[in-house]
Design a protein that fits this description.
single chain, alpha+beta, 5-stranded antiparallel sheet, 4 helices
């Protein structure tokens, strides 16, 4: 049975988020990445559910538990144009880490009848986790819906010839399983962690995460194709509304071991 590994290689801050004028939480952006990971079969049965999360990355001044990242100051802080953990993060230059990129999100066996569904989200740290806890509850509540949708995806791609699967991969990456997730609303400007990629629609803040679902057939297609960063590497973009300003790209790598 083929064995695969999915890793978070790093990210690029194409545009930093709007921040408090006094930057009391650290210079420019401080972020962390949370990934929901599920293994699901073609009947919609969930075989495994886990989560991976990085440490807070950014300015360490006054926050010794953080991982220094970014160039906003001598102690870090992520600003527009920064790459983490290094330039061209899709090209790995160090060994795998436990709590920061590059890091393993999932490793295991896949078949055409089983898929791993990974939902990586990047959060701007602001010191309050009310919204993050709400997100955790959404993931629990939507678990059965995610499982059914991935099962349906496996059925849909099963009959497709390999030659056209690259379109299915890109569609899956770009639109993911966004329709599964409920609208999250909050008061813009209120202190608290929030997901980057938040849009404002009719006065509400709406967050639509991207889910990458891969069975062995789709994983092999990702590995065999270059989507702009080298074979096997997919860019997942989270872009805020213009007022919130953030625009980050995550780099996810798939390999067959």
């Amino acid at each position: 049975m083929p064995n695969y590994e999915v890793t978070l290689e790093g990210f690029t801050a194409h545009n930093e988020t709007w921040d408090h004028i006094f930057q009391v939480d650290g210079k420019r952006d401080e972020v962390y990445i949370h990934s929901d990971v599920r293994l699901i079969d073609n009947t919609g049965r969930e075989l495994f559910w886990g989560q991976k999360q990085t440490a807070v990355l950014g300015d360490r001044n006054g926050y010794p538990y953080r991982v220094q990242a970014g160039t906003a100051s001598s102690s870090g802080g992520i600003r527009t144009g920064d790459h983490v953990p290094y330039a061209a993060p899709w090209q790995r230059k160090t060994g795998l880490q436990v709590d920061r990129p590059p890091m393993v999100l999932w490793s295991g066996d896949l078949t055409e009848q089983t898929a791993v569904a990974i939902t990586p989200t990047i959060w701007e740290w602001d010191g309050g986790q009310d919204l993050f806890k709400t997100w955790g509850r959404v993931l629990v509540e939507k678990g059965p819906v995610i499982a059914r949708s991935v099962g349906n995806l496996l059925t849909a791609v099963g009959g497709k010839p390999v030659a056209v699967l690259s379109d299915a991969v890109m569609t899956n990456v770009e639109s993911g399983l966004n329709a599964l997730f409920t609208t999250l609303t909050y008061i813009t400007g209120q202190a608290g962690d929030r997901p980057i990629g938040t849009e404002e629609v009719n006065g509400q803040a709406v967050f639509k995460p991207v889910t990458l679902a891969l069975n062995s057939k789709l994983a092999d297609m990702v590995i065999a194709n270059n989507f702009g960063y080298g074979n096997g590497i997919v860019g997942i973009q989270y872009r805020d509304s213009s007022r919130l300003a953030g625009n980050y790209m995550l780099y996810i790598k798939v390999v067959k071991k």
